[in-house]
Each structure stands twice: as C-alpha cells, then as structure tokens.
Amino acid sequence: xxxxxxxxxxxxxxxxxxxxxxxxxxxxxxxxxxxxxxxxxxxxxxxxxxxxxxxxxxxxxxxxxxxxxxxxxxxxxxxxxxxxxxxxxxxxxxxxxxxxxxxxxxxxxxxxxxxxxxxxxxxxxxxxxxxxxxxxxxxxxxxxxxxxxxxxxxxxxxxxxxxxxxxxxxxxxxxxxxxxxxxxxxxxxxxxxxxxxxxxxxxxxxxxxxxxxxxxxxxxxxxxxxxxxxxxxxxxxxxxxxxxxxxxxxxxxxxxxxxxxxxxxxxxxxxxxxxxxxxxxxxxxxxxxxxxxxxxxxxxxxxxxxxxxxxxxxxxxxxxxxxxxxxxxxxxxxxxxxxxxxxxxxxxxxxxxxxxxxxxxxxxxxxxxxxxxxxxxxxxxxxxxxxxxxxxxxxxxxxxxxxxxxxxxxxxxxxxxxx
Length: 419
Hints:
The protein is α+β, with helices and mostly antiparallel strands. The protein has helices at residues 2-15, 26-44, 81-96, 102-117, 132-147, 150-163, 181-184, 193-206, 220-234, 271-288, 291-311, 333-346, 352-369, 402-418; strands at residues 55-60, 68-71, 167-168, 173-174, 187-190, 245-248, 255-259, 387-390, 395-401.
C-alpha cells in the first residue's frame, strides 16, 4: 500500500493537485491527428497530384514546416512508421468519421497502400539488421489489421523468418547490428530489439505454433522467449533501469558488458531505451502470459515513473534522466508516447490499484503531449514537437520525429477504445 500511496502522491504533485480536471477526450486529439495527416499529404504531393511512395517521412527539424523524407530501405529503420500512421488514421476515420464522405477515407487507404508497397522488397532480401521488425510491424501488420490483405500477411510471415536468421542460440538473443560486431567486440543486442519480438510472436501464432520436432528446429516463439529471458537477465541494473547495448561473447555467449550508444553515459537511464523496455515486456506478456515478464514489465515501469518524477517538470521526460542539465536538457516526446501506449496495455494485466496508477499516468502523459507545448499545430504538419533522436551524435534534437507521431496516435486509439 505504501508504493500505491507514493504513486498517488506523485500524480497529485505533477498535476498540481487540481480539483477535477477537464475530461481528456481521445476523439478530439485523434481528429487533430487526422487534420495534420491531411496537411502532410498535401505537402508531400508532387505537382501533378501524385506521390513518390518510396520517400518516407522521417523528421521535421526546428524551424521547418514539412517532413524531411528518406528513401524507403532496410537501412532506414524509420521507413515503416509513416505507413503505420496512415493505416491508423484510416482505421479511425473509417470507424468514427465515415459520415464525412467516403472519398477522403478511400483516398487515404490508397495512399497508405502505396507507401506500404514501397517496402515489399523487404520480404525478398537477406536481413540487414534487427530493425526489420520495426519496418514490418508498423506497416504491414498495421495494414493487415486494417484490411485483412493476405499479401500483407504473406510478406510479414516471410520477414519474420528472415529476422529469425539473426538469432544466435549460443547467446540467446537476436543480433542487433551485424555491422558493429567488431566495434563492440562481440555480439551486440540493443534494448530497441525487444519491440521486434512482436513480429516473431505474431508469425508463430499465425502458423499455429507449429514446431519441427524431428529436426529440433527452434520455433519463432522459442526464439522470442529466449531473447526476452536473456535480455531480462543481463540488460538491466538492480533498480530496473536498462543499458542501451548489451555485449556478449560470440564464442561462448557470456555477457561481457552493458554500454550506451544513444544515451548520456553507459550507466545512465536513456529515456527512450527505458520506454522500449516497458513496451517490449508488456508485449511479451501479451503473447506468453508468463508472470515473470509481467513482473519485469512493472519493475521497469516503476523505475521510469520514479525517475520521471525526479527529473521532469511534467509527464514528458528529458532525453536522458541522468543528463546533468536536469530540466534544461532537451525533452523526448517520443519516449512519452511509447510509454503511454504501453501503459494503456499494461494496466489491463495488473491488479486494480496498479491498473489505476498506470492508466492515470498514461492519461496524464497524453494530456501533456496534447497541449500547445508539445503539439505541432500550425508550426508544422507533424503531430508533435520536442523529440530527441540521437543526442550524442547531435542528430534530431528538439525535432518532430515520425516515430513519436506513430506511438502518439497508437496510444490515443488505445485510450479511445477504453473510453
């Protein structure tokens, strides 16, 4: 009960102990997202009204108004987020705004199909790195959920088998960056890789969990579980905070060290890395119903919420919670979006008191993100401002970034379904 009281106190402090706040309506913010998508699509059009579907939105830097796009490729890990944003917007409008006329909705579907099709090649080439999961989950799986298109399912299943080729049974994880093995001195696995396990779990479920008992071949499910177990054992400190990168010996698989790539320091809490852990272990519990993963999801969430209270003036974290600048450090709205979406799922699995804590926290995150402090509104055509991409490299600092928008609209849709 003491822990529950402390969480309640934290929520009260961050809200300023206001008397009954105005109800937060997901529909209103989803309408805002749809209007921003309309603006973005207008800006992305060629002079003849067509689109170059091979150029996927990535970021809008400070002072700019339209998306900077990058060529759809296996090397561009963000290529799948824009198709996902379009599919989620389509799904929302189809269900809630169909009275406005079918042409807008039909046009959005055709455009979403075009941007998704630009990634078809991913099912036909060897894996580049772990980000194949991000590329496929956010485009083809969202498209499959929205349309039931069997071709999307076929491509996603093929991609899952391809991603599985990075699994190292000696280590027990999927290799993240094949090109960086020499740089790190061993098999590297980054926390972001937890998100990619969803593709393996999904594909295994589609295949009805078939095992090749005669050959002893590992199933996709087994690989995903082993990765989650190994990561849970080696990737976290005692308090539940995580390293960005875990390095393993390529010969015998033992854990060598934990380091950072995008955080402030090896031992710091990089906010988005922690958000990947929260989202990842929540998702793993969804597929496995293994209590170990639910307990761990709560542990990594609780330290995030504790540190958020200590370091941030609102519900959006600074990019790394150990940046010595404190609240003067750049924010990372993308981390808040990932956590908000994860908590709206996690609250379904925990006891009543904890569920209310997590739901309240998620709603407060979305409430802050939906103010004029963070929404782009008339500043540009993204949903949100103030995300941080790769701070140590000086890249995408205080920018609008496509994956922030993706997880923002995903979280809003999850909240809408609950409301």
